[in-house]
Amino acid sequence: MSSLTVGFIGYGNMAQAIAQGLVDAGVVRGNQIVACAGHFEKLQESTKSIGARALHSAAEVAAAADVVIVAVKPYLVEKLCKPIASELANDSTFVVSIAAGFTLERFAAFLPEQAHVVCTIPNTPIAVGQGVLVTESSDTLTDEQRELFHDLFHDIALIETVESSQLSIGGTIAGCGPAYAAMFIEALADAGVKHGLPRASAYRLAAKMVQGTGALNIASGTIPAAMKDAVCSPGGTTIKGVAELERHAFRGAVIDAIDAVEA
What we know:
This protein is α/β, with parallel strands linked by helices. The chain has twelve helices and eight strands. Helix 8 runs antiparallel to helix 9 and helix 8 runs antiparallel to helix 12. The model has no long low-confidence stretch (mean pLDDT 95).
């Protein structure tokens, strides 16, 4: 890893989250990261905090990087990558796409057959080493590149491999979920404030509860229904709250939110 260069084509919020996560976890140093973006002065400011290097073009990133992370809006992917297709198809380089909706099949339409590509969808908690990287099961990486991909990301994200047809829904759950979870944290905190808790304390309690519940689920493999039942004593306080959530179609509302994104 000490000689690896990671390049970002596009350096928006998600790209910055990945870069921050990689540096904070000690996977790479800031000076091993290069990036380009539409507004160079803003890019210089964004890269300064971790010591990354701002470049002027996608071609410069492709020439400098061993791993090229395509982190632009989906409508820009072909426009930016097609002109540098030969550089991206270099044997010493592989591409990690984080563009929503982009699968290997779409890249195959404009990149040479020998290009090495893996398509993923990350989420923002990757910035603090608690992310998810939903990854398409089909890729064109070599075994060595696949191992490097794992080594690069496994310290900052759960790498969840899914079939190509499931990449969108997997990305929706992991990628949109932080917004819904944040709304839940905010609502719990508001309730705490309503009953007299200081807001900062209410936020910490709610956020840590969500973090811990997720960690317990991953560690134990217990289904969420069993975790809920373990907290719900007969006639107790928690089951009263659960019943109220059910009365307001809590689970149905969450499913409807996912359906709205996938429609």
